[in-house]
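pipeline stage [seq->struct] | target=Peptidyl-prolyl cis-trans isomerase | organism=Fontibacter flavus | residues=319
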Amino acid sequence: MRKVLGLMAIMVLMAFGACMSEIESDLEKAIERDDAFLVSFLERNNINAIETPLGYYYRKDISNDTGNQIVNNDIVGLYYEIKTLDGQLIDSYLDESKAPRIFAHSEGGLVPRAMNFAAGLAKEGETFTLFVPSYLAYQEYSFQNLILPNSNLEIKVKFVATYSEEEIKDMEEQMILDYLEANNLTGFEKTEEGLFVKTISSGDEGQPVATDGNVVSFTYQLFQLGETQTLAQATDATNPFQISLGGASNLKFLNLSFKGLSRNSELEVISPSHLAFGTPTQVFPFQIRRDLFNKSYIVTSARPFEPVYFKTKVVNVRQ
């Protein structure tokens, strides 16, 4: 019997106060239920698919013998369509006139998890159809009428390319430049590290300027580039956020942006992902990401491989 202990399933069950033995028992029952359902579905529909040791099935629809094999830690671009086995559409991103969506093929790299696992079987340019048990999909999670608990899935996925870190940096810089041009935004200057910074106010003269080790208090708004919903709750002067400048736990763009600023300095900063949240878990569909974050299933509401837009004002600088 497969012992696939999905993190999301464990967290949900623990929230109900189940002991570990009960969790394992419930997961085993869910695995048996989904496995039986998938076998029955494939047999009823005369689908010839290959079973994997993890529990999902796949059919390779388009092969590409000359493509590069996808390996661990590759950054992968793909197109996809996700629906339940009874045909309810959850998400579709198949328009190849648009840029591929991107994830890191690594542990925890993508939800639904089976898409991440299947990448390790694929070469660039290959298309798969996956038949996925709920314990490798969204498990017991539900979202409005879009995703129901314990949904088994059929996923079509085309793995189109892999990218180097430098290619990703170039792609994100182009996203930023396109955004500035499309919105007629001026006054941003690119730093040596790759930030785009606009100074709204240079701050109070004669006041201490921030250096490493200083405590900087500030208000902020933070967005995914091009979106209006904030990634975190905005702050104001009565309840500012604060960091110890230069701290290793800070987002890199914060350490870079605040150095040399004084009280009442005001900036707008557009940061590429490698200077912000790094490479968090990718989530499809995009619209469930905030809900997963609010329920602590993922660690950040920011998407991987996309810039963020940061608006801030320094409230105070102190040693």
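stage status: PASS
auto-comment: The two ends are 59 Å apart (CA to CA). Residues 20-44 form the longest helix (25 residues).
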